[in-house]
Specification:
There is one protein chain. It is built from 20 helices and no strands. The chain is mostly helical and 493 residues long. The two termini are 29 Å apart.
Length: 493
């Protein structure tokens, strides 16, 4: 028996002894599966819906400035195109700078404290935007909005990856991220309704958009102190038996992160030395910059294309592309979980978006341009959650995964600076669409092909035993510390 086989055998024995007793030891295989399905359903109903609501509000609050723009924001504050773009840019600067730190803070402070607190402050920042009197005030409010929102998206993805098996995480991450697309739909409808308050209390309609949506976020943040739960080893909604089941499921999925880990700077170094993090950063920027460009400027694209000149109708027309993207995001999450071909999903979906932006560049027909916005949304949104899941699947260890996701998502969001400064020349916005097309073609499409190829090569080497030497002379605990470099750990391609 090889060292690796011996370690595998000892892992199985240790899994059985990890708890005082296996709560399901007396059950048949069929009964165990039934219990597992019930547990999974409990986790889904307890964790996912509320987290989706939080991200819907987060994305709504960061992108509603696009709805406010067509409702008269730039005219009332006398903003030039460059000044408006800078208010978008400054959000991404503070968001990206603080994002890599947030996953470590999430682990230290606990999700049930960290998430509601940052949510309260970003809701306050959003409400304050409704009372801005000039350019500098709006700039300051957007800075603090980025700072306080920085912890939610990477934090929740990291958090969910600590609850679900690798084959289950994708569709949950997709459902969570589909809230961003729903925010686009909901935001358009909500903005259209709120704009009718124009003049009430001597406030413009765009001010009411910020004020009411900010107050809603503050209210939800207070409720979140009771609705957001901690990690599996501390979550109060779990019985001891269910806690045991959750952690055993993760261990069976080769997630040594089921064990409690203490922070050590070695996890930061491990992430920085991992080529998958750097390539993942390139892939993610290939879909994240287009995401923000699309979300921030879709109302303007629709308005300038000649399809609609009325602000309320423009915001309503922005709803269908987002709704279609939300549906495809969940579908791709489901397909990727079943097939474990996340790279192939990225490659195929990105082609849809590439076609959409080509049409936006070459066509002057308003109907064609509006149809192209559907293709653009369909090609961008599913790749966001799929890429994050892909990275989480292939990075083992609680803190290393947190570091890597922080860098990947932070770098992607830093490219939001680009998205804020590429749409200048209306009505065709050729430069903006061309930059998005370049990002999607080179980084998203090309990067996904490269990542898939390299991971398949590495998996082939592991199946052929060419990495077994890494297990020689190591204890099971030392092997666990290798994380995704374990010879019997196979990457999701």
């Amino acid at each position: 028996m090889s060292d690796l086989e011996k370690h595998s055998s000892s892992r199985d024995e240790r899994d059985g002894d990890h708890f005082d007793s296996d709560p399901d030891a007396h059950l048949t295989h069929e009964e165990r599966e039934k219990v597992d399905r019930a547990l999974l359903r409990k986790l889904d109903l307890t964790l996912i819906p509320w987290l989706c609501l939080l991200y819907l509000l987060a994305f709504l609050d960061r992108t509603n400035i696009g709805n406010a723009k067509v409702a008269g924001l730039t005219e009332d504050l006398n903003l030039s195109t460059g000044q408006y773009n800078l208010t978008l840019t400054i959000f991404f600067i503070s968001y990206s700078v603080f994002e890599p730190l947030t996953n470590v803070l999430l682990k230290f402070l606990r999700p049930s404290i960290f998430i509601p607190v940052i949510m309260f402050f970003w809701g306050a920042s959003m409400t304050g935007m409704g009372f801005c009197k000039n350019y500098s005030g709006l700039l300051a409010a957007r800075w603090f909005l980025g700072l306080t929102e920085a912890g939610l998206f990477p934090g929740v993805n990291y958090y969910l990856s600590c609850w679900y098996k690798r084959s289950e995480f994708g569709v949950r991450a997709a459902i969570f991220f589909s809230a961003a697309a729903l925010a686009g739909s909901f935001g358009g409808l909500l903005a259209a309704a709120i704009e009718k308050l124009d003049g009430k209390g001597n406030l413009a309609g765009w001010r009411w958009i910020f004020i009411l949506e900010g107050i809603l976020t503050v209210i939800v943040s207070v409720v979140s102190f009771w609705m957001v739960h901690d990690f599996p080893d501390d979550a109060k909604f779990l019985s001891e038996e269910d806690r045991s089941r959750v952690i055993r499921r993760l261990r069976m999925d080769q997630q040594a992160s089921a064990e409690h880990e203490e922070w050590n700077v070695k996890y930061l170094y491990a992430g920085l030395k991992d080529w998958k993090m750097w390539l993942g950063m390139a892939i993610y920027m290939g879909c994240d910059m287009p995401l923000y460009a699309f979300s921030l400027f879709l109302p303007s694209i629709i308005q300038e294309s000649g399809w609609s000149s009325d602000p309320i109708r423009t915001n309503l027309l922005s709803v269908p592309p987002y709704a279609a993207a939300a549906l495809l995001t969940v579908l791709i999450g489901f397909i990727a979980d079943r097939t474990r071909q996340r790279g192939l999903c990225n490659i195929c979906v990105s082609v849809i978006g590439i076609i959409g932006f080509i049409l936006l560049i070459v066509s002057e027909d308003p109907a064609v341009k509006y149809a192209a916005t559907f293709l653009g949304a369909l090609g961008i949104y599913p790749c966001i959650s799929n890429t994050i899941t892909w990275m989480a699947n292939n990075i083992e260890g609680v803190y290393k995964r947190g570091v890597v996701l922080g860098f990947v998502i932070g770098w992607g969001n830093l490219n939001g600076i680009v998205s804020s400064n590429i749409f200048f020349h209306s009505p065709r916005y050729i430069e903006g669409h061309a930059v998005i097309l370049g990002y999607m073609t080179v980084f998203l499409f090309g990067g996904s092909i490269l990542m898939t190829t390299l991971l398949r090569i590495e998996n082939k080497k592991r199946r052929e035993g060419k990495r077994d030497y890494l297990a020689e002379g190591k204890t099971e605990r030392e092997l666990d510390q290798l994380g995704d470099h374990r010879p019997d750990f196979f990457y999701t391609t």
